[in-house]
Design brief:
Two copies of one chain form a homodimer. The first copy, chain A, is α/β, with parallel strands linked by helices. Chain A has 18 helices and 17 strands. Chain A folds into three domains: 150 residues, Thiamin diphosphate (ThDP)-binding fold, Pyr/PP domains (Rossmann fold); 131 residues, Rossmann fold (3-Layer(aba) Sandwich), CATH 3.40.50; 175 residues, Rossmann fold (3-Layer(aba) Sandwich), CATH 3.40.50.970. Chain A has a seven-stranded mixed beta sheet, sandwiched between helices. Chain A has a six-stranded parallel beta sheet with strand order 2-1-3-4-6-5, with helices on both faces. In chain A, β5, α5 and β6 form a beta-alpha-beta unit. In chain A, α10 runs parallel beside α18. Chains A, B: GO terms for molecular function: acetolactate synthase activity; flavin adenine dinucleotide binding; magnesium ion binding; thiamine pyrophosphate binding. Chains A, B: Keywords: Thiamine pyrophosphate. Chains A, B: Belongs to the TPP enzyme family.
């Protein structure tokens, strides 16, 4: 376990007891208990996004891995290195098909690479290999370890210190080709930045390119990690709904992606194209696994754009403290109150989009979003980020429907005294689904559709849920109340929850 | 949807909106919203165990199915018919690998049979086929439906009414062979009853056989559905820990399984055999999918045992109402207070085993247990049972560690006004893991092992969690307090939670 891995987000069972005992025998790995595996895997994702190196998860057999798959799906879409150690029945017990037996490798293969330890002698080499898998592929890698092979010491093998992946550098030819395209297209061009292009250096270069050529620069819609504020250009996110994204890109002869996936619709809609940019416009500056940051810097140089600049203007807007909270007001209050170097884990659209827009001119901060769309990611991701960066305050800006998937994360925040302020946008509905139902031509919902998209019967009491998990909580109904509660929570330190009545 | 399926446990997303709209257009299917897919799948399992026919689940893409896999694993091990409808991206959108795309079929294959709708014309036939799959295999079957094929009406196809599976009948030769073995073995024989052998009729026959031959009769350790009380013989469960089970079976020349899986250790332990019965002793009266009930009745006839009888004696023990609660006291109080025809969903050992023993002589009731070992099954299963049998009171006797996996079930209980009394055995630890750590030779736990098996920092407040989800709650520290709270909760009707401090 001495391969640069320092944290293990764990929910072990009987087949992992040798690992649990080893955590005390071999120093250097801090175990963090999650009450559900999706808390562990989401926290590992958040940890790696901030720490730049993987955390480990320790999961119990097939069902334990299954419970954590949704956030591993998100980690896969974030290109985050995550290393799962999954216990298996003792090798000689497997043929008996005991109740907890299932096809662990098949589950693991849906989210990344998989290895299985086949003998006691192999555990050291396989442990090193699974960490290398995560590093090289920037993804999820899983090691399945039968219980009888866990007693061999992984530490007998020579430890290999973890090195961050050296992302492949984009060739000078490619840079020159895209520079030529952008020069020709002028204002009829768009750059979509993602991956490590959303570092401060990458975005500054993107801003220079945009200012110099007249191209429009967007961030990908759901970045894993985006630096924001502190004088960075305001790279707004490409709109979520395809009609709006298509319209945003319609003027472009060239759409250059830099570390982002190709712009495709989140869902398919009848008579709406899946590819959002005009036919023939797409060009790749850097693939998601390549060094988009360096490519943008090189492109700015090639265009002689590095003298230009683009800086977001801090908002001077004052907010009426008596105003009833809306998504817009929440975004503005949080943007105004943001501590320097805060990390903001954003899940859900109600407040997420307004905050992103409002905080462009704020102090420097880092935004983490839900990359894969499997909901229940925001709270675990915030937890993992707080453990990766104990000196940075973390805010989880969270819609209620998705928070309900992994409320157990609150307990681990309390146990680890994590500096996370959880802001729950309590609109008591699956609002995005109500929008989608309307979009698909259902102007009036029948009683069952109504009931399947509403969370208000009974009303969830978030302050009670937080108290149940040991987290102090407040309620806010106006912009002023939110501001007061948020200031107090940030000043006090440790985990807090604020239920925002929308 | 007119194939005998009346209830749909749903957590839909954008790709299932056509189904949601159809629920209002086509009458006859009641939609029940779960806040997490593992609530939906566990409820479908509990529903089918009591109703004898499947419920449907409606799940959103790969991550939605992944979230529900743990309780589908349990349903698979319970041989329960469950029909999953999982939405997929529109067929023409799939090649774009949008963020929520993943290998749904691979996930579904780990728990049962899988079908994918390949054209708009096929949806009717495939819907009927997936229901038939669940019925014929007594298991989990999944239909993946791309969004663009959902607009075709499944109802255009001829509906096929759901018929309970006719379990294959055991041959007369097999009955006669086992009868001969039992006659020869006399007291040196054990019968392990499972599957539909745990019906009232099956257990009465097992009791007759045991009384007549001197054989010992056990229930399988984790039955899906076991009738208990009301004069049935006390078929105790085969012990969980292998050493105790091996010792219980050691005297047997013949171990006849009737509807139960072969007796194997739950986990493999060094130097403990996986097969729990003596070499050469195992004989099959009925396989888990066969008609064990009829086989037991036929066997009793073949042995001329049908005149014999074995009846559990109601306990006359009085309980000191001031006694501090222990697992034993909880078992006795609940057994004494049990309403006639109650359903008891048992998850976790702390109170589960004592209750099972104590309730042998109680009023007639049905016990549901966690068949697959994936924890977080008890509350959803209780919810599904309550929806299947609205006139029967349901008690969920639940350990705290496993309840924390699917606390969201409380909200659906409140919303549906389900008659479920949730009893939480709050020992604030993963007690079974502490036992397992000790078993594996760790007399003293290191600080990390201690921390990974304790749930007391911070203490969970179950009454606050219940309040958060809209369920009234009490706390009980003594036998008398539990008795009072349980009586009141049962008298009031609707969902209640009682935190039992152990």
């Amino acid at each position: 376990m001495r391969s640069g891995i320092e944290v293990c987000f764990a929910n072990p069972g009987t087949t992992e007891m040798a690992f649990v005992a080893a955590l005390d025998e071999v120093p250097g790995v801090r175990a963090v208990l999650g009450l559900h595996e999706n808390v562990c895997t989401g926290a590992a994702d958040g940890y790696a996004r901030i720490a730049g190196r993987p955390a480990m998860t320790l999961l119990h057999l097939g069902p334990g891995l299954a419970n954590g798959l949704a956030n591993l799906h998100n980690a896969r879409r974030a290109n985050t290195p995550v290393v799962n150690i999954v216990g298996e029945h003792a090798s000689w017990h497997l043929p008996y098909d005991a109740p907890l037996s299932s096809d662990i490798a098949a589950l693991a293969a849906t989210v990344g690479t998989t290895r299985t330890v086949r003998s006691r002698a192999d555990i050291g080499a396989e442990t090193i290999a699974v960490i290398a898998d995560a590093r090289i592929h920037l993804g999820v890698s899983t090691l399945i370890v039968p219980a009888d092979y866990q007693y061999a010491r992984a530490t007998d093998a020579e430890p290999v210190p973890y090195e961050a992946t050296a992302r492949p550098v984009v060739s000078a030819d490619r840079i020159e080709a895209v520079a030529r395209q952008l020069r020709e297209a002028g204002r009829r061009a768009t750059i979509v930045v993602g991956g490590n292009g959303l570092s401060r250096r990458g975005q500054r270069a993107a801003g220079q390119i945009a200012a110099h050529t007249g191209a429009v620069a967007y961030s990908e819609t759901f970045p894993a990690t985006a630096e924001r504020g502190g004088g960075l250009p305001d790279l707004d996110r490409l709109p979520y709904f395809p009609e709006r994204a298509i319209s945003a890109l319609a003027h472009s002869d060239v759409v250059a992606v830099a570390g982002a996936e190709e712009p495709v619709a989140y869902f398919g809609y009848e008579n709406v194209p899946s590819l959002l940019c005009p036919a023939g416009s797409l060009t790749h500056l850097a693939r998601p696994h390549e060094d988009a940051e360096q490519a943008l810097v090189d492109l700015a140089l090639a265009l002689a754009a590095d003298g230009a600049s683009m800086t977001a203007i801090p908002s001077k807007e004052t907010i009426d403290s008596g105003a009833k909270l809306t998504g817009d007001f929440v975004g503005k209050v949080v943007a105004a109150r943001l501590p320097e170097n805060a990390i903001v884990s954003v899940e859900g659209g109600t407040c997420g989009y307004p905050f992103y827009t409002a905080a462009a001119g704020s102090v420097p901060h880092t935004v983490l979003t839900n990359t894969g769309g499997a909901i229940g990611q925001g709270l675990p991701c915030a937890l993992g980020a707080a453990i990766a960066a104990p000196t940075r305050p973390v805010i989880a800006l969270q819609s209620d429907g998705s928070a309900l998937y992994t409320t157990q994360a609150l307990w681990t925040m309390a146990r680890e005294d994590a500096d996370v302020v959880v802001l729950i946008a309590a609109n008591h509905s699956y609002n995005v689904l109500r929008t989608e139902l309307s979009r698909s031509g259902n102007a009036e919902f029948g009683p069952q559709a109504e009931r399947l998209t509403s969370l208000d019967d009974p009303l969830m009491d978030w302050t009670a849920l937080a108290a149940g998990f040991g987290v102090p909580a407040y309620r806010a109904g106006t912009a002023g109340e939110l501001d007061t509660a948020l200031s107090k929570a940030l000043a006090d330190g440790g985990p807090h929850l604020i239920e925002m009545s929308l």
